[in-house]
Amino acid sequence: MIQPWEDGEWRPRPGSDTRGVRYEYARKPKKCPACGSARIATILWGMRIPSEREFEAIAAGLAVVGGCIVTDDDPNWSCSDCRVAIYGRTKGSA
Fold it and tell me: Cystine design at 37: which of 11, 13, 69, 81 (Cβ 3.0–4.6 Å)?
């Protein structure tokens, strides 16, 4: 169930069912909309050999590898704690 937290933000309580919920932001959020964690990782898409800097980001939980099949509807970020997908909002999206 989605309900306001003490900070006034609306997001699901831990243990809530978030299947079917699509989180969209214009910029990388500071907190996970599902669990409130500040550990938001950028998803690296495409067939690639990560650079040394990307390997360091992956090891630190700041980036995750998304896969080599890229579509026009892939999430931009992922919570490192609860693994919820977070999409980037583009022009024309609601």
Answer: 81
